[in-house]
Amino acid sequence: MKSKGLFAELIGEVFGTFILILLGDGVVANVGLAPRLAAPAYNWNTITIGWAFAVVVAVYVSAGVSGAHLNPAVTLALAFKRGFPWGKVVPYILAQIVGAFLGALGVYLVYQEGLVAAGLPNVWCTGPGSVFGQAFWGGAGGSSVGSYSLLNASIAEFFGTMMLLWGVLASGDSKNMGLMHNLGPFLVGFTVLAIGLSLGGPSGYSINPARDFGPRLLGTLVGTKGLFDGIYWLIPPFLIPAIAGPVGAFLYDWLVSANLPEK
């Protein structure tokens, strides 16, 4: 299939990342605001399942246009190890950030009254002050579980992002088991679900610099406080995934690709 050019691919990345954040941050807002039920009724499982299906839908919608990177960590990994053109890396990353910003804007429009009534809490991004790191509001029973250090959160993001790349690369690896009939997005979505359930606690599993940075900008503009306080925002959710993505691709090729039988 002939590509319609870089501009069309960038539209695909914007639209796909928009869907990712609209549904992903949307489930966070729904859980945090809990408009119908007390705090314990919505929980971490709801958030992780919502994010997993956000990934599945976003990839299905945009993969045919842009390849559905939707994540600078994926774009960098594919440039390092899968021949993705380096000239497209920066445009793709900018498109992903724009899409993430617009997706967060969509969440704000959908939940505006609830967010304003709750004092514009951080449903946008990971780290200190997010609903991942403090009690839910909206009913009795919420409880804070404390916080992790910058180092511990960085380690969690490193392993989580590598795990994401292993799932992404396996989903399209015809030399491995290979997923037939366009089922790859489900493996990627289930990988994100597994990361959230198993590795997401210390940092909120950004595993995607655009996913965190675009909504962080939007949240700041609409009035959520403290999103850029300190240095946390720069390291675990932004720089660490950008490093861990290529590392994950190198490890996949070393531990898996190099040991697959020839076909």
Rg, alpha carbons: 18 Å
First and last CA, distance: 25 Å
Q: In CATH terms, what is the fold-level topology?
A: Glycerol uptake facilitator protein
Counting DSSP H or I runs of 4 or more residues, the number of helices is 8
Instruction: Profile the largest sheet.
Output: none
The proportion of residues in beta strands is under 5%
Average per-residue pLDDT, rounded, comes to: 90
CATH superfamily annotation: Glycerol uptake facilitator protein
Question: CATH architecture, please?
Answer: Up-down Bundle
Helices and strands, in order, run as: HHHHHHHH
What structural class do helix, strand and pairing data support?
Answer: mainly alpha
- Low-confidence stretches are 135-145
The number of distinct β-strands equals 0
What is the C-level CATH assignment? Mainly Alpha
Count of structural domains: 1
State the helicity in percent bands.
Answer: 55-70%
Q: What sort of overall outline do the alpha carbons produce when their principal axes are compared?
A: globular
What does this structure look like?
It is built from eight helices and no strands. The protein is mainly α and 263 residues long. Helix 5 (150-171) packs across helix 8 (235-255). It is globular and about 60 Å long. The model is unreliable at 135-145 (pLDDT under 50).
Short descriptors:
263 residues, Glycerol uptake facilitator protein, 8 helices, single chain, mainly alpha
